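The protein record passed on below.

***
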Amino acid sequence: MASVLCRIPSKAKVIQQTLLLSSTPSRLASHAVAAAGHGHHDIHDGHSSEPAYRYAIGTREVVGYGWAGDEVYGDSIVWPYPAIRFRRPESVDASLLKKEKGDWKNLSIQEKKDLYRYSFCETFSEQLAPTGQWKSIWGIMMFWTALALWGFMGIKAVYPPLPATFTDEHRLRMLKEMIDMRVGAVDGLASQWDYEKGQWKE
């Protein structure tokens, strides 16, 4: 697989070049015409009669509508029909492009593979292949978990023990004092205490 991918131009670079003009006014202005006509209608800007998207995709052939009418390339399992080919025509043998228009039964396996790579960057198997990204995710999770544990241990070692007021005995004694002083006798704590029976009300 490595030898095959080495013969393919950088996918990120191609997509970056394709999307280069996405934020320019000329592309936004000609989006509707370019998406509908795919090159049949020229956009005149005073300097050239070429459609605006041509400056982004170069000589790559527009072969369909794509995802949303945009002349961009991208591999997708859900919608495997990009609007343009992955590679430029000059990167493929001209005789092979002529054979493409004929009967594919006359093509060799290698020629079919070359034609596929002319239109697409990755196969379905390559898109679905595991990337090993889970290793980096687990590594980041373990790093932050270890950092949190070390921080907790450092706090326990640096800070003094909790005061005596945090013990259960002291808290119960404080509760008893609050009941004896009738704190919240109307609708608070003391209102829930039965002073005749010496227990909480049922």
